[in-house]
């Protein structure tokens, strides 16, 4: 790593191993431990903070792939690696894991993880392997080799390249700077309505940056290194758009992010928000309010992971955007069922009387109720899936915004957060219907303020009134006002906001009480200005009568009385003098 220290971010769920590894590595002079965390969420939060300050604070991530026992946690570890690679493609990942299954390690290697060594490797050899990976190479432990040093020597059959580390660090540093600038320029080029002259200037800057990146790879990488690192370099610099094509509005540069990278960035932001307090600060009760905060966070995170897996499967199946509407309900239902199965445990049993009942099977019997009351009413699902899968534009307040724009990301983030919250409500709702007052359920899931039978029944009554109020009044009002009410995760807790959406078709289908509500609103809107005018007129008349007529009359009478009293006093004084 030349003369610069190797800066590590260590991730491991075992507190004893974390402490021991940190102590061992801190004793080495050319290593620095930037942070040591126990969860992927905490690691993402630290990386987000570092990215906004100094990205060079970390140049290698060392992690355990899951907890070494649970298949689910191992899959979550792979998902985290995918997310990390998409967000920080130049940040190497090194597995220091107790896992030895070749299938899992091959999966990690295939998604872009740079190295692996088993726990128990001597620190001196471990440091050599980490330095090799951080310098741009790769290392995968082979149990048939006697030591890591031998394994590293086998990575390359030719002698070490002159000044390899220095040149590689210079190349990575330069490419990192160029990529950051190129991303900013590309984002500006994708802004609709940009002036022709500005577009031409930005296109020229983009062309120069592409040529500089090609030249940097050409000069600082030898042919053998290029073959090992798989750096594509052609004899000519990459083609860049001409001035005329840059001026044409329709010939935009390719998207800045792949759909997977766009999804990872959005999910990383959501994961960061899941560290906020999750108390419901609205006046609308939610089913998940009965859960203790850690269980609530665990459920939302689980649904997010399930959604990520579902999106990966949809990409593999090469689904088309025209097919999304037809499978939307199936996607939501599958996500809900998967969340129930994993959150409560596929084979979890509960004893009711003399019977042992499978919790998941019992809860899934409420499918129709949950779909009717919650799942079918989640708004803008098609827009969310098409944005994540196809980078479609977002329509906000009847204006279109590119997928990579700040406005589109903010809108997508709000829709995603509401989606997670509503699916979580759907997971808890059948529990409240069937097993609300079971002691083992209360001990494992409920908040301490909602464990008595009276509080649970009061909470269920509040939810029941919420459904009625929404069905008859709230939803009709929202449709008439062309908006959706959604729940979002804010720094102070779960909050509520509204977003505009055309809902004319739904308005045309209203009937009975909801239709009556809209008629009352329309009548109110029609009559309110006239009532205000009438009240204002009557108010002005009353003020005129009180001030100009009654007030003046009373004033004259009072003046006469005062004058009479004054005259009597004067007569009395004159009389006394005589």
From TrEMBL:
Keywords (A to Z) from UniProt: Membrane, Transmembrane, Transmembrane helix
TM region(s), chain numbering: 534-554
Residue ranges, annotated region (Disordered): 226-248
Record carries keyword Membrane: yes
Protein name per the record: DUF3685 domain-containing protein
Domain of life: Bacteria
Any single Pfam family the record assigns to this protein: DUF3685
Family matches, as SUPFAM superfamilies: CheY-like
PANTHER family, A to Z: PHOSPHOGLYCOLATE PHOSPHATASE
Residue intervals of the Response regulatory domain: 7-134
InterPro entries per record: CheY-like_superfamily, NreC/VraR/RcsB-like_REC, Sig_transdc_resp-reg_receiver, Uncharacterised_Ycf55_cyanobac, UPF_Ycf55
Keyword Membrane: yes
């Amino acid at each position: 790593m030349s003369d610069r220290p190797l800066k590590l971010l260590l991730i491991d769920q075992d507190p004893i191993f974390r402490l021991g590894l940190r102590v061992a590595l801190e004793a080495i002079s050319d290593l620095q431990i930037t942070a040591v965390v126990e969860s992927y969420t905490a690691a993402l939060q630290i990386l987000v903070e570092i990215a906004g300050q100094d990205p060079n604070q970390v140049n290698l991530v060392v992690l355990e792939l899951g907890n070494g026992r649970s298949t689910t946690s191992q899959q979550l570890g792979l998902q985290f690696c995918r997310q990390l690679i998409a967000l920080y493609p130049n940040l190497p990942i090194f597995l220091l894991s107790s896992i030895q299954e070749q299938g899992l390690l091959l999966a990690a290697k295939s998604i872009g993880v740079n190295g692996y060594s088993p726990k128990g490797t001597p620190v001196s050899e471990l440091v050599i392997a980490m330095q090799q990976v951080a310098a741009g190479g790769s290392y995968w432990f082979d149990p048939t080799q006697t030591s890591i040093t031998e394994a590293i020597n086998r990575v390359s059959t030719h002698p070490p390249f002159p000044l390899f580390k220095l040149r590689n660090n210079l190349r990575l540093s330069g490419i990192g700077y160029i990529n950051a600038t190129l991303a900013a320029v590309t984002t500006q080029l994708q802004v609709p309505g940009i002036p022709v002259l500005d577009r031409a200037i930005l296109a020229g800057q983009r062309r120069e940056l592409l040529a500089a990146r090609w030249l940097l790879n050409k000069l600082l990488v030898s042919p053998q290194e290029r073959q090992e690192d798989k750096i594509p370099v052609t004899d000519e610099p990459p083609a860049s758009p001409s001035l005329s094509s840059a001026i044409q509005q329709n010939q935009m540069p390719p998207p800045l992010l792949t759909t997977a990278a766009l999804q990872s960035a959005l999910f990383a932001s959501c994961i960061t928000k899941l560290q906020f307090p999750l108390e419901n600060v609205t006046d609308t009760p939610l089913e998940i309010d009965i859960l203790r905060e850690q269980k609530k966070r665990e459920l939302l995170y689980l649904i997010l992971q399930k959604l990520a897996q579902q999106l990966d499967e949809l990409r593999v199946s090469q689904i088309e955007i025209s097919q999304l509407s037809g499978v939307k309900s199936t996607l939501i239902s599958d996500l809900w069922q998967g969340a129930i199965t994993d959150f409560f445990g596929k084979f979890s049993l509960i004893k009711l009387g003399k019977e042992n009942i499978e919790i998941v099977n019992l809860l899934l019997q409420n499918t129709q109720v949950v779909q009717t009351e919650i799942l079918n009413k989640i708004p803008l699902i098609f827009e969310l899936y098409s944005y994540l899968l196809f980078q479609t534009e977002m329509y906000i307040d009847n204006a279109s915004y590119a997928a990579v724009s700040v406005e589109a990301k903010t809108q997508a983030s709000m829709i995603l957060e509401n989606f997670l919250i509503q699916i979580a409500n759907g997971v808890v709702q059948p529990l409240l219907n069937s097993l609300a007052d079971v002691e083992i359920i209360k001990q494992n899931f409920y908040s301490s303020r909602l464990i008595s039978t009276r509080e649970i029944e009061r909470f269920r009554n509040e939810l029941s009134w919420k459904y009625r109020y929404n069905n008859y009044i709230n939803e009709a009002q929202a449709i008439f006002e062309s908006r959706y009410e959604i729940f979002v995760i804010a720094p102070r807790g779960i909050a509520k906001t509204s977003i505009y959406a055309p809902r004319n078709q739904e308005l045309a289908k209203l009937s009975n009480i909801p239709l009556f509500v809209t008629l009352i609103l329309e009548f109110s809107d029609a009559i309110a200005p006239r009532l205000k005018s009438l009240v204002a007129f009557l108010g002005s008349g009353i003020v005129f009568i009180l001030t100009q007529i009654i007030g003046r009359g009373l004033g004259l009478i009072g003046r006469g009385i005062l004058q009479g009293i004054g005259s009597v006093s004067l007569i009395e004084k004159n009389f006394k003098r005589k």
